[in-house]
Amino acid sequence: QVQLVESGGGLVQAGGSLRLSCAASGSIFSSNVMGWYRQAPGKQRELVAIIISGSSTNYADSVKGRFTISRDNAKNTVYLQMNSLKPEDTAVYYCNYKTKALDAWGQGTLVTVSS
Question: Which long-range contacts (CB under 8 A, 24 or more apart) does 50-55 make?
């Protein structure tokens, strides 16, 4: 089992920045993919960014150039630095941990961007 605890959400004005953190605990395997997804009201959950254990990354087109995902393997923590936030970035952001055998989700953290 893997537990994920997210932090860092909140209310920010358009153009501002936030940094999300997700700490993983439990049976952590060195080969994994961690990432961030988001779900806005009335919409499906969508990929924001993922980072593979070797630090390869992938981003949704809507956040490229504004968001940066990173990880600290020693702390089993993944971060999402969000800059130049827009009202359309408003959503619940979920942390995800994935291996061949496991797909775990955090409880979500709300990010609200006011115009």
Answer: 50/96, 51/78
Question: CA 18 → CA 28, 55, 72, 112, 114, distances in Å?
Answer: 26, 21, 18, 10, 13
**Residues present in the chain in total:** 115
Cβ-based neighbours of 7, under 8 Å, separated by 6 or more:
20, 21, 22, 23, 109
Tokens 């953190």 found at: 21
Provide the residue type at 6 as one letter: E
Other CB atoms within a 10 A radius of the CB of residue 112 amount to 15
Are residues 14 and 76 in contact, defined by beta-carbon separation less than 8 angstroms?
A: no
pLDDT band at 27; cut points 50, 70, 90: confident
Token output for 13: 């004005």
* Distance from C-alpha of 7 to C-alpha of 42, rounded to nearest angstrom: 23
**pLDDT 10s digits, 44-70:** 999 999 999 778 999 999 999 999 999
